[in-house]
Write a structure and sequence with these properties.
Oligomer: heterodimer
Order of helices and strands of chain B: HHHHHHHHEHHEHH
Membrane topology (chain A): Multi-pass membrane protein
Shape of chain A: globular
Largest sheet of chain A: 2 strands, antiparallel
Radius of gyration of chain B: 18 Å
Strand order of the largest sheet of chain B: 1-2
CATH architecture of the largest domain in chain B: Orthogonal Bundle
Protein name (chain A): Transmembrane channel-like protein
Number of helices of chain A: 26
Main location (chain A): membrane
Structural class of chain A: mainly alpha
CATH class of the largest domain in chain B: Mainly Alpha
Organism (chain A): Haplochromis burtoni
Shape of chain B: globular
Number of helices of chain B: 12
Order of helices and strands of chain A: HHHHHHHHHHHHEEHHHHHHHHEHHEHHHH
Distance between the termini of chain B: 17 Å
Largest interface: A-B, 76 and 76 residues
GO molecular function (chain A): mechanosensitive monoatomic ion channel activity
Radius of gyration of chain A: 39 Å
Amino acid sequence: MSTAGEQDADLSLQEEHESKTHRTKRRDGDRQKKKRRNERRKGGTRAGEGEEDLQAVSEKRERNKRKRAKSKQETSRRENNEEEEAQLTGGKGTKARKDIRNEKTRRMEKEEVREVDENVDKGKKKQGSTKKGEKKEDGGKQLVKEKARDIKKKNSEPETSEEDDDEEEDNDKDVVRPECLSPEELEKLKEAVDERKKLIQSLRGKPWPMKKKLVTLRESQEFVEKYEGALGKGKGRKLYAYKVLMTKKWMKFQRDFENFKTACIPWEMKIKEIESHFGSSVASYFIFLRWMYGINMILFGLTFGLVMVPEALMGRPYGSMPRKTVPRAEEASAMDFAVLWDFGGYAQYSVLFYGYYNNQRTVGWLKFRMPLSYFLVGVGTVAYSYMVVIRTMARNANESGVGDDNSFNFSWKMFTSWDYLIGNAETADNKFASITTSFKEAILEEQESHKDDNIHLTRFLRVLANFLVLCCLAGSGYLIYFVVRRSQKFALDGLENHTWWERNEVNMVMSLLGMFCPMLFDVISTLENYHPRVALQWQLGRIFALFLGNLYTFIIALMDEINLKRKEEKVVKFNITMWEASLYNGSVLENSTAPPVTIHPADVPRGPCWETMVGQEFVRLIISDTMTTYITLLIGDFLRAVLVRFLNYCWCWDLEAGFPSYSEFDVSGNVLGLIFNQGMIWMGSFYAPCLPALNVIRLHVSMYLQCWAVMCCNVPQERVFKASGSNNFYMAMLLVILFLSTLPAIYTIVSIPPSFDCGPFSGKNRMFDVIHETLESDFPPWFSKVFSYASNPGLVLPFILLMVLAIYYLQSTSKSYREANVELKKKLQMVISVLLFL
Amino acid sequence: MGTTASQLSKESLSEYQELTFLTKQEILLAHKRFTELLEKHEKEQIDARVPIGRIITLPELKSNPFKERICQVFSTSEQKDGSLTFEDFLDLLSAFSDSATLEIKSHYAFRIFDFDDDGTLDCADLEKLVNCLTGETNDAKLSSTEMKQLISNILEESDIDKDGTVNLSEFQHVISRSPDFVSSFKIVL
């Protein structure tokens, strides 16, 4: 009985060994094939092929012989080892084992000889080397099968002789009995199985044809399945099998999940279509748009789920208190479309704006802490945005790696400049042209180090251009300030007395400036005569400055308005106390026992509520910005395309090729627009929780509208810029905007006391007092004590210092790592060159 | 359509998923597109080949200057005619897919650029490559001196062992530094 088991074990080992040699043989064969091909090519004739083949075959036979000798040596060595071991353990049945092994080796030899013979035959018959490879593959497969059959036969032989032994034997016909393996062998088997598993995992990364991969996969899987069960002993075995099963299931689940995830990504087909028409740079805008959409979805989920819905469902209903009611004076026009469009009337007194929220600590039966939730969501949206942007930046930086060394300028132009996604003939032509010019430019630059014909003129022109741009920026800033000031005057007069233009002046002026100034900059930048890439960067920088300037003037003007409102609020507050006192007095005088007079909430005088005003301004800004974007899209792209297309039949010159032509898709401008739009969302969403929702709608519409516009009325760019380099540039801009837009929001939260009669923080001195309040009332006293200690400046300051030091330390280490990296790279290059030279 | 999708058995589908960088949907889509290229009587055959002439009419490959080379590299045909079986087609898509590694992408890129299949990029290969990249029109072509200059510059940069050709390891060395190779070496169905 025990001998049978041992035989099995030996057989398994043998087979493993065989398959290994088989594999190496195949690899060798491949190498040889390649070599042979090279030789043939160098020879240049096909006449000597047969001879060479023969030679190669003989060579191979020799090599095989050598290998066989080696393997024999190995087996004998192993035999010796095992013999020793066996002697140590008792030396039972060694002889039988040895016999079988000898027989095995003999058979192996025979088979190998046969294989070589087969190869010779094939070499005579077939010509193409690929075919040969394939055939050999088949041969190999057959061989494996043969072997497997042999082994099975062998396996069943002893069993049939000892049939009546027990029934378990029958059950594991194929499975090796683990109890009979020595731990060393087990270890080896385990290693082999692990190796196979690794092979299976790495198979997809191998540049082999599918057939070969399939064969290897099946072989390895068979092997793994066969011997995996043999690993582990007794009790452990079941656990092991279970584990294996679970990992298999888990892998399958992961794969399915991955499939599911990719299926869930929206607009994949749309983007792909654009990619194939316009190349990857235009598509990168849409991918960016989609990414933004995802972020806004999450922001929307946060504000909608944790702020708007709880207040709407569990808070006090509309009309129950002054802040939730339209005042009497506005009641008549509160439902007018013009008013609603301006987010006044019923829209203003709804969950969309800050002022509607009540300051009761908990709402509903869930005891939902409304003001706290409002505050935390405001902080959370900003924190989440920071996290996402920085994480994406880090990932992009990782992916692009060390892309900034310029040592392979020409090779990169040569090997990586084609965009394989292009599937449109016109784009391909443009790409050809741009590659050609880039080649020519590079050659010219290399030949002569940029000879400047009139340096004084270009310098003068550049200074002039920058001066003009500065004038533009200052002018636009002043215009916005002026307009905002004027609108305040209008607001004081009462909005009803003014025309539509006067009411919407601020937003319209901002949008128009954002539309026309970039064009102006474009004209100005032709003066400068920069390289297009540099020119693009200047252009982006200028637009960025313009937008930023506009936004900040707007905010400064808004701050003025906030101060005005707060002054007004003081007056109103005083008046209200007077009014209440008079009311109280009056009621007391009339009837002291009657219940206090109930006044309809619409009639109660109230403060101006600056927070809602800020929120409204931002919402209006977003709306008008969206409108102008869409209208420019329709007029600038669609109408132009239509005119060019149809007037071309009856015009004196060629409109399509000549002056107006079709418009190109302006990737950088659109990305900048998107970034600034997002900045406004971040700034305003604390005071208008509806902003993320609006933005989601806007982005959704943008996606479809712009996709359509691009496909139907834009032409591919003449100069195709790479998308990858600019990705992190845009991200960096987004980060800057995020920082700059959270600054004013945080300033207002921290330094300005909230309105006394509206919003979730009314009655508090500062908005963040809500944290303090929660700590005091909802947590055990020791917690607030600890917190107050922790927030003590004596502790906070050293902590900040420590963080700064840590940042400094990390930065310096990363710097030194980078230096070491560069050094190592140099060394590696040297080593490679030396190696290749040898 | 349902019948063509069901032609792929479950096992082979999972095997293909194991062996390529494609997801299940992509494999099914590839199968659909591939069977559309086949003629009617070929649809029953398991390892039917689509000749190169029909492969390069795919809109994804149509305007690619390397379309013939791509077919030739991925073809396992015995006549070396660049015809593709479905498995070859999957290999192609896998190498050009989004999640393929830099290593495998650069390996195939090298083989595509190696026009005469001799395992190195020599001057003739590079010249052909430049001509492919600058298009067929005559006015876009570089002059011979420009071409010489360009090729000598390229060899100067990437031919580390100075044997006058660029071999695979040199090529991979150069490519691995490039910031946008992985993002542009992509074909999506």
